[in-house]
Amino acid sequence: MADVTLRKVVKRYDEVEAVRGIDLDIADHEFVVLVGPSGCGKSTTLRMIAGLEDISDGDIMIGGDIVNDVPPKDRDIAMVFQNYALYPHMTVAENMSFGLRLKRYPKAEIKSRVDEAARMLDIVELVDRKPKQLSGGQRQRVAMGRAIVRNPKVFLFDEPLSNLDAKLRVQMRIEIKKVHQKVRTTTVYVTHDQVEAMTLADRVVVMNHGRIEQIGTPNELYHKPATKFVASFIGSPAMNFIPCRLEDVAGKLHVRLTDRLAFPLPLARAVRYQNVPRTENLLLGLRPEHITEARPHAQPGVETFDTVLDVTEPMGMETLIYFTLEGTQVCGRVNPNADAHDGAPFRLAVDLNNMHLLNEVTGVVL
Amino acid sequence: MSTVTIDKAAPTRKVKYGSISRDRAWALRWSYFFLVIFAIFFLTPPVYMLITSLKSSAEISAATNPWWVFHPTLENYIALLTSNQFLRFFWNSAIVSIFVVTITMLISVPAAFALSRMRFWGSATLATGVFLTYLIPETLLFIPLFKMFAVIGDWTGIQLINRWYVLLILYPTLTVPFCTWIMIGYFASIPKELDEAAIIDGASWFQTLTRIFIPVALPGLIAATIFAFTVSWAQFLYPLVFTTSTDQLVMPVGIITTLIKGDVFNWGQIMTGALLGAAPPLIIYAFLMDYYIAGLTAGATKG
Amino acid sequence: MADVVLQPNRAATSKTVGKRGSLHKMLKRKSTVAFLMALPLILLIATLVIYPAFYALHLATLNKSMSRFVGLGNFEFLFKRETFWLVVQQSCIFAITAVIFKAVLGFIIAHFVHNIPAKGQRKWRGMLLVPWVIPPAMSTLAWLWLFDPSYSAFNYTLSFFGIGPIPWTGDAYWARFSVILVNIWVGAPFFMIMYLAALKSVPDQLYEAAAIDGANWWQRIWYVTLPMMRNIIAITTLFSLIVTFANFDIVRILTAGGPLDHTHIFATWAFRIGIEGSDIPLGASVSLFMVPILAVAAIFILRDISKRGNEA
Question: Which of A221, A240, A337, B104 has the fewest CB atoms nearer than 10 Å to its CB?
Answer without folding.
Answer: A337
